[in-house]
Amino acid sequence: MTNALLSRRRFFALSAASAAAMVVARAAGAQEGEGQANTGAANAPMEADRYKPVRLAAKGTPVMDQAKRDELEHHIHCQCGCNLDVYTCRTTDFSCQVSPAMHGDVMALVAGGYSAPEIIAAFKNVYGDRVLMAPPTNGFDIAAWVTPFVALSAGIALVLVVLKRLRAPALAPTISPVLVDATPDEQARLDALVRSDDR
Amino acid sequence: MILIGELSLWVALLMATWGTAVGFAGGYYKRPELIASAERASYATFGFLLLAALGLWSALLHSDFSFRYVASYTSANLPSIYKVTAFWAGQSGSLLLWAFILSAYSALAVWTNRSRNRELMPYVTATLSAITLFFVMTLCFGSNPYERLDWIPPDGTGLNPQLQNPGMAIHPPNLYLGYIGTAIPFAFAIAALITRRLDAGWLAAVRRWTLVSWFFNTTGIILGMWWAYVELGWGGYWAWDPVENASFLPWLVNTAFLHSIMVQEKRGMLRKWNVTLVVSAFLLAILGTFITRSGIISSVHSFAQSSVGYWFLGFLVISIAVTAYLVATRLNDLEAKAELESLVSREASFLFNNLLLVGIAFAVLWGTLFPILSEAVTNNKITVGPPFFNKVNVPLGLALLALTGIGPLIAWRRASAENLKRQFTGPLLAGITSGAALFALGMRDFGALVAYTLCGFVAGTIIQEFWKGVGARRRMYGENAVMALVRLVARNRRRYGGYIVHVGIVILFAAFAGLAFKEEFDVTLKGSETYEATDPYGNQWRFVSQGVSRYDELNRQTTAVLLDAFRNGKRVGVIKTEKRQYMDSRGVPTFQPATEVGIMEGIREDVYVVLAGVIGEDTAEMRITFNPLVWWVWYGGLIMAIGGLIVMWPQAERRRAQAGYSTVLQPAEQSA
Q1: CB-nearest partner of A135 from B142, B388, B592
Q2: Are the CB atoms for B80 and B61 separated by under 8 Å?
Q3: Distance CA A198, CA B443 (A)
Q4: Each residue of B310-352: pLDDT tens digit?
Q5: Under an 8 A CB cutoff, do A134 and B31 touch?
Q6: Which of A111, A39, A87 lies closest to B594 in space, CA to CA?
Q7: If both were cysteines, with which of A1, A67, B307, B529 could B525 make a disulfide (CB 3.0 to 4.6 Å apart)?
Q8: Do A152 and B359 make contact, defined as CB atoms within 8 angstroms?
Q9: Which of B374, B577, B591 would best serve as a mutation to test chain A binding (most A beta carbons within 10 A)?
């Protein structure tokens, strides 16, 4: 009886704690307004100052064909507010005004004889690192590139250590028999199946 | 019905609170009446959340614009099917779907375990109720789908055109079924940790639920890829967007677990690792939800920014803290019960398979979150997009593909040199022959050549396994080849179902590699003008414009262009691409014009046409793309799903034992 009473008390204490949590949550979380799911760049806010001209004086004849230019545009981040590269945005979101303008700059620089790294550098000078589709390979951001491989190497080392620890020097087979109520004939077929599974 | 639904949400809150409290109390004090009450509360929560869901559907179908949610995501003239699917178009509706599916899963888990795992069930029930409670609290206090407007608008905003697609009708529920499926194994892991019953019992229950989660996660991801391909118009199906990445993370970890659980079942090893994977899959699903709903990371899929994301962050932190405490205090109970006999064994290869899967998961997570870290450290906004993810993950993915072939060829415990020679000769020859043949045919893309060589190798291993299995049955039982194949799969569904999943993986990799040969053309055509192009296979194509037509249909004004397509001089069909301006019931345009892609599907390639715009009356600007092997992505996914179903299909315990999949019990456990 005492136990039952105690457990009820504890239970009501738990209930009270839950109710308090609800009140706190109510106070903390104001109802959010519903907004339509932003599923496309077309719905991203478009601001006139997002585009900045990237212009350089022509220095020679083009060194890139259309395929290479398109590939280059995959590495330049459209600044319209979407999450896409210039090529993808201009060929997907036909309401975007920023990606065609940036595409125009790329075409002008290609026509002016600039190479892909030079064009990337020109865009970086104007917009900063945010115009790149991948982290820069200098400063702190090099960590983005290095960390996955460092982690993988650490993982390989860890697996090797685990394998070494798991490995016993001279083991008799320690696997326990699986309990199956079988006739001798069934047991023979079972052994054959397990053997075939162990191939 | 709507009022009942609204009230039911609040009653569900009480039920989930009750279930959480009495579940933990019943487990702690071992009080059967409290445990039974918690289980009944689980059924009741499901019932009330079903009513809450029906209420919202009723409001959507009746266009009751007094509700903010209905007014925000539908209009009176929206086709009924999309009024139904608008349920998960927004924040609060999708949270209600999440809570409803979770309660259904919980009720099913409680019901199927009514006479099994009884020591675990109080804590399983309580943990699931606690997770449900979090979701219902978020709904009631953070993002309530039943919130009313101060005034009733004459019509709603309408549904985003990109969501008016059959893919969006089935992709999100599938993905949610996959995400939420991780909660059940998580609850079993928590229960096993609390009770210290970390032997075989909880694994059997967890494996089936992980498969359920994996199956829906797989179909959800593939359907999402299909939706992106047919609807977004950029010609691809995977852009390494943060939300796509969020769906991929639990899939990777679940896949790792489904391999490593075999090592624990067969050899009693990797017990800590398996608990970690089960828990990580759930935590990553919650992290993915936080990413999607907080607006912390820019994504084309993001829901409206809201404080709801931070509720998830809080929940995530609490879950990590509780789990870390439980694991740390039970490390001794998680020691391996067997030793590794050889580094050249299937269990060792599964360890490396797990390392790669988790390594890819880490790389994806790292790349997804790195912009936040970089901005915090350098105060500089950067983007981590496809160039990063492809560079980091392609080599890891190819290594994983190689292990997909290597793992099944190596014997459990110890592989002899003879065994290795016998098993590897055929598949290696298949791989090298594939690569050499493609090189001889003119393929020079290094990545694609490596991918196809590995695809040939893995396909060789799978064919060899089926060949040997069918041959053995034919010799033993005198069956014909078809019957032997069917029975081979039916008698050992896990092993051969798994190989069928591997077939799907090979097909997917082959299809991904095909993207290296994509060709695109910008085209401007007047009516009856033609455009000629050569596809990646060297076929000559001619496209003849049939002009621009404009017409009204359903809730939209459509501008369409028809192209007659000829391959090597032979007419092969008509491709229609459209631009649609959606309108509400008063004829007011809603959203910006949307593009409908025209696709001529084929086994070898898709011809993919996007209408960029119309100049004047009759001139269309289009982008024509030849997309090699895309068809194989969908059918590779389908084969993976079929393989998953075969693995999931219930099999008598005796058969599982015959196949060697009974969990290894140590003497102490057997006598317990």
Answers
A1: B388
A2: yes
A3: 38
A4: 888 899 999 999 999 999 888 877 776 666 666 777 888 888 8
A5: no
A6: A39
A7: B529
A8: yes
A9: B374
pLDDT exceeds 60 at position B94: yes
Question: What ipTM describes this predicted complex?
Answer: 0.82
Q: How many CA atoms lie within 13 A of B269 on its CB side?
A: 25
d(CA A128, CA A142): 16
Q: What is the pLDDT of residues B615-658, one digit of tens each?
A: 888 899 898 999 999 999 999 999 999 999 999 887 655 555 55
B69 close to B147: Cβ distance less than 8 angstroms: yes
The burial of B5, by beta-carbon neighbours within 10 Å (0-12 exposed, 13-18 middle, 19 or more buried), is given as: buried
Distance from CA of A108 to the nearest CA of B (A): 18
3-state secondary structure of B116: coil
The residue with tokens 């036909």 is A94
Give the pair of three-digit tokens for residue B250: 């639990």
Residues 6+ positions from A107 with CB-CB distance below 8 Å:
A69
Contact yes or no for B304/A35 (Cβ under 8 A):
yes
| Chain-chain contact of A135 with B659 (C-beta, under 8 angstroms) | no
Residues of A in contact with B423 (CB under 8 A): 199
pTM here is: 0.85
Q: For chain A, list residues with pLDDT below 70.
A: 1-49, 93-94, 166-183, 190-191, 194-199
Helix (H, G, I), strand (E, B) or coil at B625: strand
* B567-600 pLDDT tens trace: 999 999 999 999 888 887 777 877 777 888 999 9
Dihedral angle of Cα B64, B67, B72, B77, to the nearest 10 degrees? 0
Rounded to 10°, the helix B308-328/B183-195 angle is 40
What is the C-alpha to C-alpha distance for residues B35 and B273, in angstroms, rounded to an integer?
A: 30
Q: How far apart are CA B230 and CA B627, in angstroms?
A: 12
Residues in Cβ contact with B118 at an 8 Å cutoff, skipping those fewer than 6 apart? none
Asked whether the beta carbons of residue A134 and residue B610 sit closer than 8 angstroms, the reply is: no
Residue B559 Cα to chain centre, angstroms: 35
Tokens of A65: 């064909």
Residue labelled with tokens 């060194």: A63
Amino acid in position B405: G
For residue B114, the tally of other CB atoms under 10 A from its CB is 11
Tokens of B144: 């309530």
How far is it, in rounded angstroms, from Cα B625 to Cα B608? 5
Give start and end residues of each alpha helix (H) in B182-241: 183-195, 201-227
> Are the beta carbons of B445 and B517 closer than 8 angstroms?
yes
Give the 3-state secondary structure of residue A62: coil
In angstroms, the separation between the Cα of residue B622 and the nearest Cα of chain A is 9
